[in-house]
Amino acid sequence: MSAKLKVAGWVALGAVAGALTTMQLQANARSSLSPLPLEEMQQLAAVFGMVKSDYVEPVDEKKLINDAIAGMVSGLDPHSQFFDKKSFKEFREGTSGKFVGVGIEIGMEDGLVKIVSPIEGSPAFRAGLKSGDLITRIDDTAVKGLTLDQAVKRMRGEPATKVQLTIFRKLENRSFPVTITREEIKVVSVRGKVVEPGYAWVRLSQFQDRTVDDFVKKVEEIYKQDPKLKGLVLDLRNDPGGLLEGAVAVSSAFLPKDVEVVSTNGQIAESKASFKANPEYYLRRGGSDPLKKLPDSLKNIPLVVLVNEGSASASEIVAGALQDHKRAVIMGAQTFGKGSVQTVRQLSPETALKITTARYYTPSGRSIQAKGIVPDVMLDETAEGNVFAALRMREADLEKHLQNGPEDKDDARAKAREEARAKLEAEYAKNKDSIKPLPEFGSAEDFPLQQALNQLKGKPVIASKTATERKAEAKTGE
């Protein structure tokens, strides 16, 4: 491994969209820093003094400074963030796949917390919370006005403590309270099975500490069950990303040795790196190469990768690498488009700064920032067409997202989202049973999976007749 790569340290999962991050433990000063703007620094000091002396009630100085740092960073892009003591602890918990909370994957919609999916077996799952539910209150606090991280903080806590969530179920047009007892949540990031003789399905829901080991274990189980495997579907739908090493390792399981998986580029030296399909680029804290346990045939087995609008960051790295090396057929919908790297620098033993330091590029040199990976074959969510696809947010929809150059505001996409929402609400008002949730991934009713299997078998594939590639952004001079 190169010296610059060793300096870069480790890569970890962000709080919500699978933020791709590189952890550097030193908060070292940069000799390249330009002089601080004196007049603006004096204004900052003056405001701090006025708030401290003139505000209607006493304020905590440390909180003022932390809020100032948080505001400074949040104005940069959707993924840069200041971690205080509690949020830094939660950030590190996120990479381990274990945390104490209610057990939901979440996003934001109209200023409210939206439940993307309850984690199977979690307290939220047992309480009957559903995908699409909106959380309007957490205990006595209204969610409107909170950031997603602030909402997460209020829902997490100590084991066996209770939290009351007020839920608005839009399609039923009703609100109701749910009291949930927090417990340790263990996220299982790898599932898989032999779908039918000769064909298997492996799903990665996140890239966490144990994802690579669990991936290897699952593939071993599948090959023991069916040693004569003819084709494999790698399912990365709704995978928000996570550990870069995990993405490099999973890509390496299917690629020849020494080929490039992903590269990064930014202003600072350690942001300029190339990651290849070799153990030194994905092994952490020593240890043996887990991929050695995999059968050699995995390098050549026919492969389809399923993606959708929820596939982001590390999952886009895998899809992009396998697509560029023509190792797999990518099927599904255009991905989220998170093509930036966040470096986490520890400021103190309990606080840190996560800041965007680079873009990442697929082996052919593509930056997917605010665009995503375009599938080789576009698929609808169901045989009847797309139901919820237009409602899903992408990187390009986020305020202050990092651009690849001049880009047009996609008013048409925002309009389509509102039209799709209105259509769903109108249909539900006529008939509450008219809108059904999408089938579970990996089930017999999973339409994209059936098309992926058809692709592997050489049978006709029902491609989308309506899905089109989103307009590419202008290229930068990098």
Automatic annotation (TrEMBL):
Signal peptide range in chain numbering = 1-27
Please state which protein family the record places this protein in: Belongs to the peptidase S41A family.
Family annotation (InterPro entries): ClpP/crotonase-like_dom_sf, CtpA/B_N, PDZ, PDZ_sf, Peptidase_S41A, Tail-specific_protease
Which ranges carry the PDZ domain?
88-156
Descriptive protein name:
S41 family peptidase
Q: Which UniProt keywords apply?
A: Hydrolase, Protease, Serine protease, Signal
> Which Pfam family is an annotated match for this chain, by its short name?
PDZ_2
